[in-house]
Design brief:
The chain is α+β, with helices and mostly antiparallel strands. The chain contains three helices and six strands.
């Protein structure tokens, strides 16, 4: 496609792209950036960058932290299952690896 990232769309911004070029306006000045955790967990592609963080890297770190929490707890996981397909990336494998849990497809 030959596209490249120019910049992220800001909260409250409307961007119009046409043959004439790029136009931007804001529908409100009262904005805030509130990223949902589901963006990291389910919605985003692994190669996405959210708030300057690579989604794949964030998922790996979450899996590592979950595995450590499991190893430190009284209750141990018997199996690690990724649901839905978007969670079949590193968190499932990273979580399972140090705890020696098998992984299964849901």
């Amino acid at each position: 496609m030959g596209a490249h990232l120019v910049r992220d769309v800001r909260p409250g911004e409307i961007v119009k792209i046409s043959a004439a070029g790029l136009e931007s306006c804001f529908y409100t000045e009262e904005t805030s950036c509130n990223l949902c955790a589901m963006e990291y967990i389910y919605f985003s592609r692994p190669d996405s960058v959210l708030e300057g963080q690579n989604v794949h890297g964030v998922r790996r770190e979450c899996g590592r932290l979950l595995a450590q929490e499991d190893l430190d707890s009284f209750f141990k996981a018997d199996i690690v299952v990724g649901v839905p397909d978007s969670s079949l990336s590193p968190p499932r494998r990273v979580t399972a690896r140090p705890s020696a849990c098998p992984t299964r497809w849901a």
